Amino acid sequence: MAMESPYLTNDCLIHIFSFFHEDDLIRASYVCKEWHEAAETPWLWRGMCLQRWGFCNISLLASEHGKKAWKHYFLGRFKLELKMTEGRTGGDYICKSMRGHTGRVVGCVYLAGNTHQRPDFWSFNPTVCSASSDGTVRAWDIQQGAQLWCSPVQSPLTGMVAEQGGGRVLTSDSSGMVKAWDGQSGQEVSSYSSASPQCTMLSFSINGSYFLSVGTSQGSVHTLTSPSLLKLSSLVVCDTFKVNLLLASPDKKWILAGTRENIVISPKVLSSQSLTCPSEDEDPLCQCLPISGCYAATFLPSQAARLATVHCKDQSHTHPNKVLSVFDISVKKTRYTSEIQVDQVERFEVVFDSRTSDILLEGKGSSTLVVAAGQELRVYNLKGQLLCGFKDHIQPITSVCVDSFRVVTASKDLSLRVLTWKTDRDRGLTLDSRYHLLGGSHSLSRGFTQVVCDYSSIVASVEAVDRKDVLKAYSFSS
């Protein structure tokens, strides 16, 4: 049958291509002229991109790179994810050791990270900042392993957070001083005295305005403007116990504050509006969670305000098993008042071989939970079904990083374990354990203490025997 136009031929070939595996499609595009022309069609690659990665930013890809944007994006992302899945030394990534600190690394954050939604992820060069007990903040080019700047020496630092989107980092030190630093120059922007030798910090933004909440060792939460660090409010959350649990919900309407030092005290949900715009006539909007104590907590990233917690099974606190409870948080308004509503969604027991209280909890999507305790890593759905479990490490897991593509665990055994997400027909979302990344010599190091990731790299801190901690950066490229 005769074709009415050459476009009909291309349409047929595109339909055929939609059944090809990615590798087959790439090879087929070189077979003949017709197939090559069809393989260059933007809407073919656009469809494949959206089928594989539904979050692709269509407007950016369509406008910034022209006709070949979709193919360029697909091939680059496909090759990058293949390398991140296989993790072969000498070919899939480069490893850089970043030395310079003369003390313990107490914080490591991406100053400018490579997100999975960037249309130019292949050319983006991430930078990280680290804080140390040596009293310095340092910025690093992780692909080159080079230091970009170093702050003046001050009191030993105890923590660090990044101001997401603001290009600044915020630190706390052993004297209770909180400081904001410009990420480009390393210049100090402002400071605030919390009068607390140990601080827990949370940076968040509401409608383009940045804020910093600081949990103190006296049990209070101070909320400041950022980066000017002007005090807006102060609220006692757990009197006499250190606030070391501080999280913001994805919609930024709620702040969870609590302590891990006392398993009797319940964490509290606070209204961010009450903290950032306090009213002289009304008490801050606050509600205790209906649980006893809290070992770990996380907000589910794809829900506006869904909170998961690991806590004691009962009031006696003698039962070795822990309970994982999930709550949805909302506000209930009447004619004259408003109150925080905490509705329990699910509750189930979690039993670990180890009796450790060092439990790590992260969320994926709207209904998947990643739990680490001791050497174990587990994935649960909200119904309490164990989707998969791993014991890839021979020493305790110290840190977990979860993103849309993978999970990375850091351990005292001086290794990082990389696992990638997959969808199982029967169990839903699960993980595949892929490979280890090694951190150096056991004679010189005591293991990894923290790991952070962006879309194309992994950075982890190594605790050194000589107390001069090292950062290890693993960069993948397409």
From TrEMBL:
InterPro entries tied to this protein: F-box-like_dom_sf, F-box_dom, Quinoprotein_ADH-like_sf, WD40/YVTN_repeat-like_dom_sf, WD40_rpt, WDR55/POC1
Pfam families documented for this protein: F-box-like, WD40
Keyword Repeat: yes
Keyword tags: Repeat, WD repeat
Domain of life: Eukaryota
Record domain F-box: where: 11-51
PANTHER family: F-BOX_WD REPEAT-CONTAINING PROTEIN 12, WD REPEAT-CONTAINING PROTEIN 55
Protein name listed in UniProt: F-box domain-containing protein
